[in-house]
Amino acid sequence: MPVNAANRDIPTRIDGYGDTAGKLYEGPFARKPDARRSGGRIRASVPNGGSKVAGGIKDAISAAGIRSGMTISFHHHLRNGDYVVNQVIDACAEMGIRDLTIFPTALFGIHKNIIPHIKSGVVSRIMGSVNGPIGQLVSEGGMDTPVILRSHGGRPRAVISGEVHIDAAFIAAPAADRTGNISGRMGRSACGSIGYAFTDAEYADCVIAVTDNLQSYPISPISIPGIYVDFVAVCEKIGDPAGIVSGTTSVTKDPLRLLIAKYASSLIESSPYFMDGISFQTGAGGIPLAVTAFMKEAMRRKDIRASFGLGGITGYFVDLLKEGLVKKLMDVQSFDLDAVKSIACDSDHIEISADWYANPWNCGAAVNMLDVVILGATEVDVDFNANVNTEADGALLHGIGGHQDTAAGAKLTIIAQPLLRGRIPCVVDRVHTLTTPGQVVDAIVTEYGVTINPRRKDLMESWQEFNCGDDTPLVSIDELADRARGLSGSMEPVHTTDRIVGVVEWRDGTVIDVVRQLES
Amino acid sequence: MLYLPGNNPNMLLRGHLFKPDGLIIDLEDSVSRHEKDAARILARDVLKRGEFGKCEVTVRINGTETDLWREDISFVVPQGVSGVRAPKVETPQAVKDLDEEISSVESKSGVQVGSTKIFCLLETALGVWNAYDIAKSSPRVTAIIPGGEDLAADLRTSRSKEGTELEWVRRMLIVAARAAGVDALDTVFPNISDGDGLRREAGFVKQLGFDGKSVIHPSQIPIIHEIYTPTDREIDTAQRIVAAAKEAAERGLGAVALDGRMIDAPVIRRAEFTLERAGQMGKSENRG
Q1: CB pair distance less than 8 Å for A259 and B217
Q2: What topology does CATH give the domain A44-127+164-244?
Q3: Strand A214-215's sheet: what is its strand order?
Q4: Which chain B residues contact residue A487 at CB under 8 A?
Q5: Contact B76, B47 (CB under 8 A)
Q6: What confidence tier does B233 reach under pLDDT thresholds 50, 70, 90?
Q7: 0.90 surpassed by complex ipTM
């Protein structure tokens, strides 16, 4: 069996995916594009062409000519409050449409309603993140074809390069007008940025805006202009606001997580990047948010201003913007109400597409401008490889998100997490699934201290210079793995069959790893 | 010193990472009656691992008025724990009983007899009244500590933000501790989200003369350290006093002046204590 550059066994052919020759992972920046962009169908409109409002979702499906075997796409800005995926798949099932490939940016627990449609053959293939119950189904062999996992940057790359052709894109629209101008910033289902949907709108053969908030023409501001949109479908509710955005995001009070965040913040402060104009992405999790809080203190103390904050944006980042500690926010996904309100009214809070955010094959993704990113992982190994897809029991329960893209783009990539989750070690000898290779991970921070990748001698030196006392311990990766093993004991290996149920692509479209079906 | 619930493996294994001076594994109030056995086993196993960084480790056992304390001692003393914290001590006899039991367990388990210290929690009016006698009742007694909630209840009052109800108790315990030659450690500050209140209280008890303070949450540790760590100026003055005293001794002088002030034995002792706290005397006892 061929072995890729990350030392993972990848079969020459994967049923439901195809031949892997020429598609094996070669290195984080090895594969370069050599082609022209693909594109969607060219459409024309005529003066006074009238309204694009097709009626309800079924009417839009009919009008769009969606047939069995097509590929339809969705975006996940409505997160676990999304009603659009379920409504569209239910409608397709009722209309007798089968064998669909769905191409969501991510599926959540709320989408478990499509499990019966997977079993009945309405949905035959998923290309996208499968969080929660659908991931569990896939892990146990519940689909005939493997799920294809791509990063936030890898997905638009696959569309633009023609690896994935979208027949119809359904865009959940918190606000739309009759010509299909779309905004995520207003309405009862407001979600702020709808950056993941931009590429789908530009490249799909047919684009359907699904809204519960039809406004008079033209709406303002516009995220996706109607020039890309074929039809507008109106439904009662596109989502549940409680599941779309959280209220006020607050910093964790868990002392252990705060300790990890403090160490991570110290590492950033010690790095050569902690200077005026620093840029960073910290995300919305407990530890990253606390890192942001500690960095805020350090920035004030040293009178430093950041040039921009990137990625999923929280109210905490918005506060930094308002205080002038961060000059701009580049937002592909707004996590909470404060972020939604901010992007609606502050011109320094910029909505960006996933392509702009993270695609390795364009002329300059925002991730390449990042100084620092704080990430998590379900496990990391002694080679600094990270797994964010499978859990300790081998179940495929998480998507890649922007993990690969930001790790590859940032000058300092930190994975901050507790050494153990419950009794499960998070630092192991070899990750079960490889998502992000150690070549692009610079440091791991746990409650036991800071662990710097030996290839970053510069970081080691700056750390030792900064932290001349024993305030924050420097721990080697082998010591960390030993400690985890000592605390938890040896873990029983995950038992899988040979059948491949998931393909993990590196952001350039090569296969970095595969996920195998769990033994029943 | 940081209290860790005896039934919480997560905190027992990681408490030292927050860098307190000491850890107190609690088998008493934070462990419900039906979990006492499990907590003892857990405490024993964690003590066996012995991974506590630079922390001194003690165990708060159940009170001598219960039927639990002897078994607590049988689990933790053989592991070579630094000391036991005995709650609700009211009389010298209670300490003598503890001393006898600990000696018996030390002897059977090969631990040096007399090496396990006793920290006495005085949580009733009677215990506070007997403070000096309790402190003198055994050479194992290394510190006396006023109670908090229990003591306030026994005094028929409640804990206030200002700590008025414990003020006299604290003053008395300092005198008793110093007279008996043991440490005085302060009780916990229960409101973990009131950093300013903790800072105020810690400053007050430090000024009274307390050697340290127990905490119930890791977030309280930096505040106690901030209060108890000497400032650069204090360290500088202490270093100069110790140096001047050393020079005077070498020259055979009984007393010497520094910055126009006579340096005598009490001044030198205070300076040495300041340097001990700052970790600059080459030896630093774990206190607080």
Answers
A1: no
A2: Glutaconate Coenzyme A-transferase (3.40.1080)
A3: A182-183, A175-177, A214-215
A4: 13
A5: yes
A6: confident
A7: no
